[in-house]
Amino acid sequence: MGFSGKAWDDRATTPGKDELVNMAIDCQTPNAKFIAEQVITTQAANWRVEHVTDLSPEDPLWTQWEELAGSRLFLAPRWLMPWWRAYRAPGSQLLLLTVRNAQDELIGLAPWFLQRTWLSGNKLQSLGCGLACTDYMSILTQPHKEEAVLSALAEYLKQRMPQIDHIYLEGIEADNLTMGRFAQIMATQYGYQSRDVECLDCFRLPLPADWETWVMQLSRSRRRRVRQLWRDQFDTGKAVIKVAHDENTLAEGFEILVDLHQRRQNAIGHPGSFASKAFYEFLWEAAQRHLASGQLRLQWVELEGKPVAAQLDLQEGDTLLDYCSGIAIDCEYARPGWLGVTAGIRHAIESGRTTFDFLRGDESYKSHWRAEPVKMIHLDLVPPTFKGRMLARLRATLGHAKALAKRLLRPTAKPEQSATNGEDDS
């Protein structure tokens, strides 16, 4: 079943060329609904876009999505669907847009949702946004199918979802070519206003082949302290690293993480991420799923039998993602942050990984460990509609007023950091 309009013809276009082929497709109805109205399909000659509004692990799409995401954990259903279940607001709608070719292969997927807000109207956003601070978001595509997928998605949004007033996609790497091309298509072909919104950088630490080589890269004073720390604490057995390996140890380690994280954040005047019931439920389910898939490393360090540092990391191919941590507030003499971070880095090196990613946030300790900044952005797209443009002007006006108030009231204030990133007491 098809619709009359423009469609991407993958056969008629040379791969790699940025052009569309217009095709007239006869149809009887504009939409076809399948699977108890959980999927809405729009089809053209060589692709079809499906709008999936519900998904469970038993659905074939779940496995297909996992395969398309590959090692990109933050773009997989094991991460994003627990977020959706925990954070879904009343009236919001899951907006998984899948693109399939004529052979019914999944060649692309956009992990989005739609929510109505007073300041943005009907707002399209990425799953995993907000407090969860999901990084490296994108649109998934098969290799060499990027142009077909992006063109199909853009056409679908224009033709089938004209009610959208604002598209705001968070946590995108600034040099992400896929998202850059998507923004270009929306701007040049459909008249959207496109803007890159600055946000905090991620920090990646390139890892050498062995632990001693990495230690030698540190400053002289830090190098001496790290060696002394390991000699006095780990080598003597005073400090012990424990890792979750089953349901019981996962539950034990997760509660240690929550306790240490909340105590630390409360001590510095922040509510802490786990003050949110939604965040707790999201991360707990995500941790369970990633333990089952072998991609979770939840470690905690016990100093003389007492937990003093905990880290929830995700193992993404050659990279260890340092997502959430907590440290004890009553043993600063032992440098619990250093114990946790160096234990995580050493594990990453000795397990053959090449990158330790501290993720988003500009805390100074990240550069002290020789991590390098990775520029991140949020993508802001405004449709060429009266309502969309008026709401954009209202947001801009309120944003300027808020910035001015901050400068007047807190002239030396520093941007608040996300509480989900790693911590250190350096």
Automatic annotation (TrEMBL):
Transmembrane segments: none annotated. This is GNAT family N-acetyltransferase. InterPro entries: Acyl_CoA_acyltransferase, BioF2-like_GNAT_dom. Residues 220-367 form the BioF2-like acetyltransferase domain. Gene3D superfamilies: 3.40.630.30. One of its GO terms (molecular function) is transferase activity. It comes from the Bacteria.
